[in-house]
Amino acid sequence: MENCKGRSTPCEINSNKVSEENSVPTDNRLYREIIGSLVYIMTATRPDLCYSVTKLSQYLSAPTMSHINTAKHVLRYLKGTANRSLIFRKADEPLHLVGSCDADWGASEDRRSITGYGFHLCSKGPLISWKSRKQPTVALNTCEAEYMSLASAVQE
């Protein structure tokens, strides 16, 4: 992966769909190593990886070549965006908590939505807290999924 071409997006378009030719099961040791490394990087400094890593983590028990290729796409994204990081500077404005949250309604195979949120200490500052995770229950509509996302963010 050292000489690979960098990517500008952390996730491929339509990465949810597994093509038939790439749905061959593969050794999950390499896949788990890649995902474990991505989780470490995401948790420490790269909140832009949250959604991609959360989606890829759902296939740790039975990854296919398609999942490995998607994980490699995330690694290429890291190579292409190696200069990006969280930078904390003294704020010119008063500190106040600014947060946002969102949910994708029922996009997973088990129809549970994925919740994501992020918090800043001022409107122009870097994220200080973020999370992306699968909701514990199935939302019956998009409004319910968004309310579950809001409840998760407020608990933070």
Give a quick summary of the entry.
With 156 residues, the chain is α+β, with helices and mostly antiparallel strands. The protein has helices spanning 28-44, 50-57, 65-80, 142-155, and strands spanning 98-104, 114-120, 127-134.
What is this structure's SSE topology?
Layout: H1 28-44, H2 50-57, H3 65-80, E1 98-104, E2 114-120, E3 127-134, H4 142-155
Antiparallel strand pairs: 1-2, 2-3
Describe this entry's structure for a reader.
The chain is an alpha+beta fold and 156 residues long. The chain is built from four helices and three strands. The chain folds into two domains: 85 residues, no CATH class; 58 residues, no CATH class. It has a three-stranded antiparallel sheet with strand order 1-2-3. The longest helix has 17 residues. The termini are far apart.
Record keyword descriptors for this entry.
single chain, 156 residues, alpha+beta, 3-stranded antiparallel beta sheet, 3 strands, 14% strand
